[in-house]
From TrEMBL:
Positions bearing N6-(pyridoxal phosphate)lysine: K234
The keyword Oxidoreductase appears for this protein: no
Sorted UniProt keywords: Hydrolase, Pyridine nucleotide biosynthesis, Pyridoxal phosphate
Pfam families found in the cross-reference section: KYNU_C (PF22580)
Gene3D superfamilies: Aspartate Aminotransferase, domain 1, Type I PLP-dependent aspartate aminotransferase-like (Major domain)
Record text on subunit structure and interactions: Homodimer.
Role this protein plays: Catalyzes the cleavage of L-kynurenine (L-Kyn) and L-3-hydroxykynurenine (L-3OHKyn) into anthranilic acid (AA) and 3-hydroxyanthranilic acid (3-OHAA), respectively.
GO terms under cellular component: cytoplasm
GO BP term, example: quinolinate biosynthetic process
Pathway: Cofactor biosynthesis; NAD(+) biosynthesis; quinolinate from L-kynurenine: step 2/3; Amino-acid degradation; L-kynurenine degradation; L-alanine and anthranilate from L-kynurenine: step 1/1
Enzyme Commission code(s) on record: 3.7.1.3
Protein name: Kynureninase
Gene field: kynU
Length: 423
């Protein structure tokens, strides 16, 4: 979409006055004087999440063991709410585990290698945990990742070539795992096109939604992937290390879970405590251990808030505010060697902007000392995420002003280029 932006503060204030989501900011704990641009790594705490957590604490205090009765299916109930974000059927989505354990669960369930078809297709830009899990699961089947992992190389180190992915779908490929939104460059892949191509070749395909869920609109009823996994602590603001999400297409419900556990047993026989697993044949059958109620509760609060707004409005603001940020980078920072390293097209851009500069790490350090919280990714990317729910246009304007001062004064040069533990 074309926007008419200017470089003056008054427009930023006007954009905030006209923002239909402006009042949602009050639901979040936004520190006064701080500009938080790292919600694509850890979303801010919300009052809704806090209320849901305290409610669960009170249930524990007052109901003790009896709390299991109303919350026995909590993972599925939260999954039903999460399903609305991706337009999946309710019984296809589950809140359980973490991103990596859910990759293991889906891959060990759906990867059935044969002599002729045993390779797993991945890209070389995805978050490394996905690759670690794939390599591990391949070893468990007796294959060597050096042979069984087929990697589609990025042509430029920034973006995935969708045509190259489809071309790599040869007859020896059994399964594919790809990111929906690239964590570095914010590229959005065409899930529908790639999934259709995979299925035409008889290949199982799954998607990592970690940087997509809560940031972009998705339609799983249309795409029909085989599986998907995601975390909930980024755009969903469910808390650090919060319980993750798992989608399994209902056509696979007759499969035996790769990693079976007692919480995936049939409801009617679970407490008979048999030593033979009886699989619950919906997505809840892929649960392993007892759900972590206190870890899941904050997600209930944020999902209630997000679903009350709707992904249409969230995505509309996200696209506009990231467009505004890119405009200001072009107008105010390009002269200092700063460039935009993410796709500019609305349908190809996720929820964050990638500001690239050779001294990106030092600039990040300078920003933090000015009470701006960015995110650095190798080799030269400053990720800036103006989150639709709590970032204002004035935040974006003031951050760029601070960046302009840092670049003009070269104050970043006094900071070390040595990486810290968490960047």
């Amino acid at each position: 979409m074309k926007y008419e932006f200017t470089t003056d503060l008054e427009q930023a204030k006007k954009l905030d006055q006209e923002d239909p989501l402006a009042e949602i900011r009050d639901h979040f704990y936004v520190k006064q004087g701080q500009i938080y641009m790292d919600g694509n790594s850890l979303g801010l705490a919300s009052k809704d999440a806090e209320e849901a957590l305290l409610k669960m604490m009170n249930v524990w205090k007052t109901q003790e063991i009896d709390m299991w009765t109303p919350y026995f299916h909590y993972g599925q109930e939260l999954g039903n709410q999460c399903a609305k974000l991706i337009n999946a059927e309710e019984n296809e989505v589950l809140i359980t585990g973490n991103t990596t354990s859910n990759i293991h669960q889906c891959v060990t369930t759906l990867y059935h290698p044969t002599k002729e078809r045993y390779k797993i297709l991945v890209d070389d830009l995805n978050f490394p945990t996905d690759r670690y899990a794939i390599d591990s699961d391949i070893r468990l089947t007796g294959y060597d990742p050096a042979d069984a992992v087929k990697v589609v190389k990025s042509p430029d180190g920034k973006y995935i070539d969708e045509d190259a992915v489809i071309e790599a779908m040869t007859s020896d490929v059994a399964l594919i795992l790809l990111p929906t939104v690239l964590y570095r460059s914010a590229q959005v892949l065409d899930m529908e096109r790639i999934t259709k191509a995979a299925h035409e070749k008889g290949i199982i395909i799954g998607w990592d939604l970690c940087h997509a869920i809560g940031a972009i609109k998705m339609d799983f009823a249309k795409v029909q992937p085989d599986f998907a996994i995601w975390c909930t602590y980024k755009y969903l603001s469910a808390g650090p290390g919060s319980v993750a999400g798992l989608y399994l297409n209902k056509k696979h419900f007759d499969e035996n879970p790769g990693l079976a556990g007692w919480w995936g047993n049939r409801d009617d026989t679970q407490f008979q405590l048999k030593h033979q697993f009886e699989h619950q044949k919906d997505v809840s059958g892929w649960q392993i251990g007892s759900p972590t109620m206190l870890g899941m509760a904050p997600l209930e609060g944020t999902l209630n808030l997000i679903n009350s707004i709707g992904m249409d409005k969230i995505r509309t603001k996200s696209l506009k505010i990231t467009s505004y940020l890119m405009f200001l980078i072009d107008e105010k920072l390009a002269k200092y060697g700063c460039t935009v390293g993410n796709p500019r097209e609305d349908d190809k851009r996720g929820g964050h902007v990638c500001l690239e500069h050779p001294n990106a790490f030092q600039i990040c350090s300078a920003l933090k000392d000015r009470n701006v919280i960015p995110d650095f990714r190798e080799p030269d990317v400053i990720r800036l995420a103006p989150i639709a729910l709590y970032t204002s246009y004035e935040d974006v304007y003031k951050m760029v002003e601070i960046l302009e001062d840092i670049m003009d004064s070269k104050s970043y040069e006094k900071y070390s280029s040595k990486r810290s533990l968490v960047v």
